[in-house]
Amino acid sequence: MSVVYSSPFVPPEWVAAHGARPKRIRPDPGAAARATAPVAGMCPYARALTGEVQALHDGEVAVFTTTCDQMRRAAEWAALESPAPVFLMNVPATHGAPSAVRLYRDELHRLGRFLARRGASQPSPEKLADVMESYDERRRELRDALGLVATREASEAIAEFDLAGRLHAALARRSLPRGIPVAVVGGPLMRGDARVFDWIEEAGGSVVLDATESGTRTLPAPFDRRRLHDDPILELVDAYFGRLPDVFRRPDEALYAWLHRELASSGARAVVLWRYVWCDLWAASVARLRELADLPVLDLDVSGDAGSDRRTANRIQGFLEVLR
Amino acid sequence: MNRSPERISMEELDLLCERRRTSGASIPAYVGPLRRHVEEGDTRLLRLQYDASPAALRLWSFLLTEEDRLHEARAAGAKIVGTMKDLGTVPVMAYALPNVVAFYPDGAWWTPCLMELSDGLFRIAQLFGFGEAFCPVRAMLGAFVNRAHFPIPDLLVCSAGAVCDDFSAIAQCVESLGHPILWWEMPHRRRPEPDEPAVELPGGFSAPASQVALVRSELERVRSALEALAGSPLGDAELAAAIAEANRVRRLLAELRRLAYTADPCPMPALEMLIAEMLAIHFCSDRAESIRVLADLLEEVRRRVKENRGVLAQDAARVFWVNPVADLRVMNLLEDCGGRLAGTEFLFSHALDLIPEDLPPMEALARMALADPMAGPSADRAARIERDARAFGAEAVLVSRIPGASHCALEGAVIARVVREELAIPVVEIEVPPVADAMMPTLRSQLEALVETVLERRKR
């Protein structure tokens, strides 16, 4: 059984430990065309994911998360329209209170029962710990590789890891472009969207930080080996729910603390904000990002249709020209 | 002193006010001509039509003097709680404490309408990145910044999780400007799984017992914060008494809605019903007076029903209205086009349903909070709308989209689908900006077409 999802708050270790195949996808923007959901007012990413889920086959299930209003409602639409079972995982917005941690952990168990009802096996703690160790090792290799390659290759390597759980081939080390250091911050990328990094480099920039939802920001930190064996679920909850910074969290200070730190250490001189039209959470962050980073910010409202690519590339070019 | 039931202009309502004053009738101190609010900038009042009754005059005066009441409470040493997003739960708790007043800063979303954009709240919100792509509730941010409307609360409480993204983002911005917020988790309400302990919620939804327990524990955090603010304990006995008082409001509204939405001819206009329903969520900052205001209104409606008199022509097209409108004038427009309300769902049906009084108070409040139509699947909300529309005998459903709201696109589609399938009655979606003058011809056409469709269907 394959479990298709896009949220970084779904731990692949948990799915794999149940004997299912985790597939964190970047939805194809073209899939939006087959989504029956309304166009106006709907986030293009949520729409594309809905389209992907509508096309799933036997043996596949989909997992959405409640991390934004659009996605939780998209899950409902997908459940109405898709032949595949859809699971909506409640990821609390608040954090710090024990009740939020408990809710996330309980939701993992509920996901486990959902998978078990469809033929998956409930893992023992030992099995879960083994799977987590294995992922941790492969993720370490991924992290090592990411430091050696350009951002587009790094982004695609993460996408491949998310989809397959490993890297198929060693990444070719290449000289990193030298240009105006730029950080890309924002929501998730769709399939093919990594070309935004090319556009930035072609315009004289050099991407020094991928802080999109699809980038290193949502890679969980290495597990604590001792805690992993003592209580693997607790460690899993901490690594994902406890530590991943995101824009939907309330309060959202962890995201801005992370950005503050990473922007400084990356040496970024400008920020490109990647957000989808109708995404209120990232749209609301523009002003705060400008204030926090004290850097020029290009607010890219992405509609997901191929026709807008030229406009996006032109805006990036214009932005970097001003910075030269 | 009552005129025949009809809809009148603001000037005529002010004349009625003047006549009541000179006649020596006993009227509360806050009741007065609406002209005074126009002079303070609420110019939209000039373009609305009102019910011609002392009860409606009292209702409007009560609504429009709320900010004065809050400032007076602050001056008198009361603690002020700004409760955000949950629409109906936290105020029940806050009013259980002596010397605590709770209100929704969210209510500022009507200020740009009332002041016909002269308030500048949207301009301020725009400075912080909240432009037209966001719901009109962004006016709240402007009000926090310019401090020209409500007093800055002593405690801010906001639900997070299964809420609108735009509201959550705006509230987060409020916090980043130096107004600390106690965030509490509202989980996405889901249907219980097989063999999972379930609980029935007010209004008929059901939810897993574990979700109710979670909300209860979150509300306990709110209780602690309220106790710290008030400097006095908030015991179950006080909460139980507060629930009983809230239920007095809800019972009055239930009867008012039953009569106003079923009697023919229609005994109370749509606009006054919208305002009356709004009193349920935080009692317009005075719980005791909100009960008197609603009792007055109910008495007026009962009298009209008994005398078989109404404000609209008999047999007006019966329309169930979904979502509050950003421009109040559109409620008048429905009636101008030959329609009338036959039920509503203004996003806070959980604030209208009775809170269980036979349960421990925090359990009862948790169940009520979780019944929020916005917290659950759109299909649940649609089912409730379908049920209520059937009960009120609605002949059409109108979904009024809120511009920029993150939930409206998909939610409206689900509601329309369920209503069409289950009730087989017409559904129309409209979008209403805070000042809809430029769109009035379009909106009028949409509403007239809906009314015509209803009337045509009667001939079949």
Q: Can you describe this structure?
A:
The complex is a heterodimer of chains A (324) and B (460). By secondary structure, chain A is α/β, with parallel strands linked by helices. Chain A has two domains: 122 residues, Rossmann fold; 149 residues, 3-Layer(aba) Sandwich (Rossmann fold). Helix content of chain A is 46%, strand content 14%. Chain A has 13 helices and eight strands. The longest helix of chain A has 22 residues. The mean pLDDT of chain A is 93. Chain B is α/β, with parallel strands linked by helices. Chain B has two domains: 172 residues, Rossmann fold (3-Layer(aba) Sandwich), CATH 3.40.50.11890; 219 residues, 3-Layer(aba) Sandwich (Rossmann fold). Chain B is 49% helix and 12% strand. Chain B has 18 helices and twelve strands. The longest helix of chain B is centred in the middle third of the chain and has 27 residues. The termini of chain B are far apart. At the A-B interface, α3, α4, α11 and α12 of A face β5, α9, β6, α10 and α17 of B.
Present the secondary structure layout:
The complex is a heterodimer of chains A (324) and B (460).
Chain A lengths: L1 E4 L6 H6 L3 E4 L19 H11 L5 E6 L3 H13 L4 E4 L8 H19 L8 H22 L4 H14 L15 E7 L8 H8 L2 E7 L13 H6 L1 H9 L12 H14 L3 E7 L3 H4 L1 H9 L3 E6 L6 H15 L1
Parallel strand pairs in A: 1-2, 1-3, 3-4, 5-6, 5-7, 7-8
Helix pairs in contact in A: 2-3, 5-6, 7-13
Chain B lengths: L6 E2 L1 H13 L12 H5 L10 E2 L2 H11 L1 H10 L3 E6 L5 H5 L5 E4 L7 H4 L6 H7 L11 H8 L8 E7 L3 H12 L5 E5 L11 E3 L5 E3 H22 L5 H27 L7 H13 L4 H20 L10 E6 L6 H8 L2 E7 L15 H10 L7 H14 L4 E6 L6 H16 L3 E5 L8 H19 L2
Parallel strand pairs in B: 3-4, 3-5, 5-6, 9-10, 9-11, 11-12
Antiparallel strand pairs in B: 1-2, 7-8
Helix pairs in contact in B: 3-12, 3-13, 7-8, 10-15, 11-12, 11-13, 16-17
